[in-house]
Amino acid sequence: MLAALFLLVVCSKGDRMTRTLIISDIHGCMDQLNEMLHLIQFNSVEDQLILLGDYVDRGPHSKEVVDKVIELVQKHHAIALRGNHDQRLVDLINDPSHLVQSKFLEHGGVQTLQSYCGSNEISDEILIQSRERIKSQYGHHIEFLAGLPLYYEDHDHIYVHAGLNPNYVDWKSQPEHDFMYIKDEFIRSDFHLHKRIIFGHTRTIDIHGKPDIWFHKDKIGIDGGCAYGLQLNALIFQEGSYKTERIMNLK
């Protein structure tokens, strides 16, 4: 009797996990993320949320977004992947080389430093101070981002920030850099993995001329370019069907 009751409880809980919600490339757009989670009525008891990386840079609230992602992972069993911008922030804190600093600042890192440190101007001295402040006060953010996985896989999909390298028969053995940076070679290639690949990184407006989610036979691109004044997309997968939602960046 007890075994049957336990089985009923487990099955009932499993039955409630009916939706997979995928969001990518938030890039410091905290308001849009909160609006999206409200719009799609995210409920961690019933939903699996998957975030495909790039939480920082370009948008105004990188620090707050990382705080939120940590909360979603630790308290709401979300799965968060690592994007190339997240890696750049980790590299900035751990590697003070001029090349790393230049790459970080050239790709929206100024806004990240403003979010963490309130710095409106960037100089060598301010950059050093900002690095030390982030390391001492937000070291848990850097540790969290550095420890995020590069991909996730379930029964129906492969989830990744940037894409897969078609030159690797075993895609899991491709270089870490490809998971976070690959673009055109991945998008132009056909894959026969019996699972669709869901990715961000490349703005969909650069793939099919509009910021809406891009559907292809073996892959789905969801980066709506929110930090560029476009939109934050969410892909909802439920019982074999897809639904999309978007939040416009009007600010």
What is this entry, summarized?
The chain has helices at 2-16, 30-39, 62-76, 84-94, 98-117, 124-137, 139-146, 176-181, 184-188, 205-208; strands spanning 19-23, 47-51, 79-80, 151-153, 157-160, 196-199, 214-215, 219-221, 231-238, 241-248. It has 10 helices and 10 strands.
Describe the protein's architecture and organization.
The chain is of the alpha/beta class. It has one domain: 4-Layer Sandwich (Purple Acid Phosphatase, chain A, domain 2), CATH 3.60.21. It has ten helices and ten strands. The strands form two sheets. Strands 3-2-1-9-10 form a five-stranded mixed β-sheet. It is globular and about 50 Å long.
Look up the CATH topology.
Answer: Purple Acid Phosphatase, chain A, domain 2
- In N-to-C order, the SSE pattern is HEHEHEHHHHEEHHEHEEEE
Summarize model confidence as the mean pLDDT: 92
Unreliable segments of 5+ consecutive residues: 1-16
Amino- and carboxy-terminal Cα gap: 58 Å
Radius of gyration: 19 Å
Q: Which class do the helix and strand fractions yield? A: alpha/beta
Taken from the alpha-carbon principal axes, the silhouette is globular
CATH homologous group name: Metallo-dependent phosphatases
Helices, by number, come to 10
Give the neighbour order of strands across the main sheet: 3-2-1-9-10
CATH class: Alpha Beta
The major beta sheet can be summarized as:
5 strands, mixed
